[in-house]
Amino acid sequence: MALIVQKYGGTSMGSPERIRNVARRVAKYRAEGHDLVIVVSAMSGETNRLISLAKEIQAQPDPRELDVVIATGEQVTIGLLAMALKDIGIDARSYTGTQVRILTDSAHTKARIQHIDDENMRADLKAGRVVIVAGFQGVDADGNITTLGRGGSDTTGVALAAALKADECQIYTDVDGVYTTDPRVVPEARRLKTITFEEMLEMASLGSKVLQIRSVEFAGKYKVKLRVLSSFQDEGEGTLITFEENEAMEKAIISGIAFNRDEARINVIGVPDKPGIAYQILGPIADANIDVDVIIQNVGQDGHTDFSFTVPRNDYQKACRILEGVQGHIGAKSISGDDKICKVSVVGVGMRSHVGIASTMFRTLAEEGINIQMISTSEIKISVVLDEKYLELAVRVLHKAFGLDQEA
Amino acid sequence: MALIVQKYGGTSMGSPERIRNVARRVAKYRAEGHDLVIVVSAMSGETNRLISLAKEIQAQPDPRELDVVIATGEQVTIGLLAMALKDIGIDARSYTGTQVRILTDSAHTKARIQHIDDENMRADLKAGRVVIVAGFQGVDADGNITTLGRGGSDTTGVALAAALKADECQIYTDVDGVYTTDPRVVPEARRLKTITFEEMLEMASLGSKVLQIRSVEFAGKYKVKLRVLSSFQDEGEGTLITFEENEAMEKAIISGIAFNRDEARINVIGVPDKPGIAYQILGPIADANIDVDVIIQNVGQDGHTDFSFTVPRNDYQKACRILEGVQGHIGAKSISGDDKICKVSVVGVGMRSHVGIASTMFRTLAEEGINIQMISTSEIKISVVLDEKYLELAVRVLHKAFGLDQEA
Questions:
Q1: Domain enclosing residue A41, as ranges
Q2: Nearest chain B alpha carbon to A143
Q3: C-beta atoms of B79 and A143 within 8 A
């Protein structure tokens, strides 16, 4: 009796057989009397195939035309899923972004949704049809096809749930929920029944890439009830992402341990401790489109200070070259760095009302002889930068230290 | 200084390299100062791939959803061609059928064009852009994606030329024009500089499948100047298809020899010679969606007559079974037939004002000892049904007898 938006990713749509499986799952929900809007991604690999084709034609594909080309991936899967549903007797109708009308700005390849027309979808739902919508795409005010960027299908799902005031937005992936940490590193990792939006944001941005971060922000903004589920398991309630902390049934202080090994550290040693120095260092890095993550500036001594930050490992060499180029200008004694580091974070809204999380974390790492290179904190997370070789050990001992291996 | 619509088929768009070739050709015309609207097909093989995918999901794919899926083929190529043009410095913009707006009826997979909005295209042309339009597709009044059926991209090209009052519609194919007959059968076959629409219709329907027949009808209706050219040759003026006979510069009586070996003959012997008998025989055939081509009914004797017709060879067994089923009902003495036949036709508007074409044709065949099984005539063609083994011989001797091997 609920209105549910379900989103299926590329793996779930990866073959005719898998598309039929999705149709059977949709039919099961339909049989329970729910109204359903289904958002789908392109078949896995298809978007990359189309991008490669475009790059064979033009090294830097024209953004407007690239969107025309890559939007076809989801247009194929909406049609196929509608057929699969009709084939088992479920009335369904597919919609492209243009047909729904998912209005976006004109920022091709990374457009933002501005408005969703819900009349057509509501009429179909009223007529008893399952509505199938192409994820990842929209249309601008001039009728140009736009795309929302990588992972944009999650955003489409959440935006549709918000526009339709759906009871729940279910994101089907190849994992059955959000875990306390990566089970490949810690076999005792548990699936969380609930997680707050803020925690999910920290977990997602820290490397637990279950959901696209923009979709989580969107869900938080519009108070959409979001659930992550596995499309390969028939049972299981997944993980519910809640927007109110008191909805979180599990009272654990820490929800999970996130980590990221795709980082490198750069140190700028002995720069003059004066206003504007951070901008002089990071400005050229930002101009080169390199994302900077953790930033640390030590208290200066003798009019000089040390400045450290982390960048994606792929950009390490590039960032070093840029800084060597401006070293004289900024007056740094030396530039050094390390691309064999990792970042490990403990995340949890419970941190707000509990003291001692940081000390537990640092003590646990110290007991294992793990040296902490950098520390960064926010309201609901503490991140440490470590030598890469300690990653698995650090995650395991922290997982245990915060009792994440036990049901709350 | 002209407005030219160019249509490129799937072979011309078959690979990134070929798409770049098309872009170079378009650039050449652009450099000459022409305004250009380019219609493209899907990459060769792509439409079939998408249909196969659909059939894996649903044996008889839902027509609305099939159109959603197969319309993506041309959406990919318009984007790629726009990129290829931009890559060599030519400003261009792609349009789907929905974006142009090519309004069609709602007959999915075989829709008919009803109206074309030309505002967007005209604005782009005025701004100096090359306009690229997806062939084969349109949109109905409710915003559903439609397709025009096989060969529909030719129809899109002609319809755009008509809507924009273009000076010429150029159809690029893998042949460099329309020939007097198939050069594989008669090496002396010549490319025609001009052919009338009526002749082209007869040539196309008789097996010289250079252009989709609906596009030729469309061009005739709207007086669109149509030219067939090779996309693999840089030179050559192709064949101009004219809508006025006096534009035909070549004064040959006969324009070409068409032939078709995909035919089978069925004889219904000794049926009562009474009103309605043709319908009783052909009704069940039509109900089975079998196309009937040549139909001959002899003058009856003794209250009985013989009735013969040809069907596509693939449908021969099916047609025979149907007739055997109704033989008793229609009171036929016997059903017989032959699936080793062919049809050879001489085509030419000059026939209208010249007598003796039929006698020349029959004499020429008689001199080679070729027996004629059936004869069918129209205002501008004479067709004969022959034993299949005589096809090449008949085409060669007729080609020579009517002087087609010599420049008019």
A1: 3-174
A2: B99
A3: no
Q: Which range in A195-199, A363-367, B134-138, B266-270 is most confidently predicted, on average pLDDT?
A: B134-138
What's the Cα-to-Cα distance from A210 to each of A146, A292, B234, rounded to whole Å?
24, 22, 53
The whole-angstrom separation of Cα A350 and Cα B322 is 79
CB B365 within 8 A of CB B394: yes
Domain with residue A385: its CATH number is: 3.30.2130.10
pLDDT tops 50 at residue A315: yes
Predicted pLDDT at A250: 47
The token pair at A379 is: 């309201």
B236 touches chain A (CB under 8 A): no
Region B234-241: mean pLDDT is 84
pLDDT band per the 50, 70, 90 thresholds, residue A248: very low
**Least CB-CB distance to A65: which of B65, B67, B79?**
B79
The string of pLDDT tens digits covering residues B154-209 is 999 999 999 999 999 999 987 888 888 888 889 999 988 888 888 888 876 555 56
Q: Which of A143, A174, A205 is the last residue of a domain?
A: A174
Owner of token pair 């080169």: A288
Minimum CA–CA partner of A77 in chain B? B69
Confidence label for B401 from pLDDT (cuts 50, 70 and 90): very high
Let me know whether B25 and B163 are in one domain. yes
Spatial CA neighbour of A75 closest among B390, B65, B34, B174: B65
For residues B146 and B267, membership in a common domain is answered with no
B321 assigned to some structural domain: yes
Mean pLDDT of A116-135: 97
Q: What is the pLDDT of residue A293?
A: 83
Residue A235 lies in a domain: no
A209 part of a folded domain: no
Do residues A350 and A254 touch, judged by C-beta distance below 8 A? yes
- CATH number for B116: 3.40.1160.10
| Shared domain check, A300 and A160 | no
pLDDT category at B151 given cuts 50, 70, 90 is confident
Specify which residues B8 forms β-bridges with.
B40, B172
Is residue A78 within 8 angstroms of chain B, CB to CB?
yes
Domain count, chain B: 2
pLDDT above 90 coverage of chain A, percent: 60
Q: How far apart are CA A47 and CA A10, in angstroms?
A: 9
Q: What is the distance, to the nearest Å, from the Cα of residue B84 to the centroid of all Cα atoms in its chain?
A: 29
In the chain, the amino acid numbered A9 is G
Q: Is there a single domain that holds both residue A285 and residue A163?
A: no
The model's pTM: 0.79
Domain final position from A174, A191, A223: A174
Burial class (CB in 10 A: 0-12, 13-18, 19+), A341: buried
CB atoms within 10 A of CB A115: 13
Q: Can you tell me whether residue A306 is helix, strand or coil?
A: strand
Residue B199 located in a structural domain: no
A147 lies in the same domain as A10: yes
| Residues B162, B19 share a domain | yes
> Which residue in A20, A58, A61 is closest to B57 by CB distance?
A20
| B72 in contact with A, Cβ within 8 Å | yes
Q: Do B55 and B167 belong to one domain?
A: yes
pLDDT of residue B203: 79
